[in-house]
User: Which sequence fits this backbone?
């Protein structure tokens, strides 16, 4: 009989508190789980925890991530003339003031300027 492989105490403790499970599923269920894992970016453990109601759905995280990406791509900002911090353009009066400024100083499409 062979020797058992040495495991550090921390690994042994982790294995005791986080047991491994193994299950057999149909090919159809396996394919569906694999597809869900790839599309959601979640681990199988996360999917199982959500199914058991032990973890909040990650839809909110996905929304926040998408919102942040869109904001970083499309936001228009300027610096406050008093404190110097960033201000995001989102109020109708700010948009109107910017539109007036751009018209007053001749801002136009690059194609229009070439004509």
Assistant:
């Amino acid at each position: 009989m062979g020797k058992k492989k040495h495991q550090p105490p921390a690994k042994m403790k982790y294995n005791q508190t986080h047991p491994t499970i193994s299950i057999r599923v149909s090919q159809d269920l396996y394919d569906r789980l694999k597809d869900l894992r790839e599309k959601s970016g979640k681990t199988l453990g996360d999917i199982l925890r959500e199914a058991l109601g032990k973890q909040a759905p990650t839809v909110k995280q996905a929304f926040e991530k998408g919102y942040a990406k869109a904001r970083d791509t499309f936001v228009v900002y300027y610096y406050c003339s008093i404190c110097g911090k960033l201000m995001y353009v989102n109020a109708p009066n700010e948009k109107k003031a910017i539109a007036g400024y751009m018209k007053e100083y001749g801002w136009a499409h690059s194609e229009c300027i070439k004509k």
In short: The two ends are 88 Å apart (CA to CA).
